[in-house]
Design goal:
alpha+beta, globular
Length: 121
């Protein structure tokens, strides 16, 4: 078992299911997306360049999707908080994931990479 698998498996059931579903949504968006454990969290890369990650707020145990270039995307469900560059999207583990909305936001981000606005290798 890889270290990245432990990130998911060590979570309580609702949280684990939410994070694994998010992982599957992200990985199925584009064949150029890969995953890697960085800073203790699963990061998703597009052609080797970090574009999003999954994490859980320690104080509230709320899972979120972090968008590395979030400052370049305007969407009411993305929150900047005290970050300069990244925005996050929070999820309630007791509710269904808004899959269409997640895919829409992630495709907006991916288009920045695909069109060269954000340079990739």
């Amino acid at each position: 078992m890889q270290e990245i698998d432990n990130f998911y498996l060590n979570k309580e059931e609702n949280l684990r299911h939410c994070l694994l579903a998010l992982r599957d949504i992200i990985l199925n968006l584009d064949e150029n997306i890969t995953t890697s454990l960085k800073y203790g969290m699963p990061f998703f890369l597009f052609k080797g360049k970090m574009f999003c990650y999954l994490w859980v707020k320690k104080e509230t145990n709320i899972p979120y999707l972090g968008i590395v270039e979030g400052k370049r995307i305007e969407h009411p469900d993305l929150v900047l908080e005290e970050r300069a560059r990244m925005k996050i999207m929070l999820f309630d583990t007791d509710k269904d994931l808004p899959i269409k909305k997640i895919k829409s936001i992630l495709n907006l981000v991916l288009d920045l990479y695909r069109t060269g606005v954000i340079k990739v290798k």
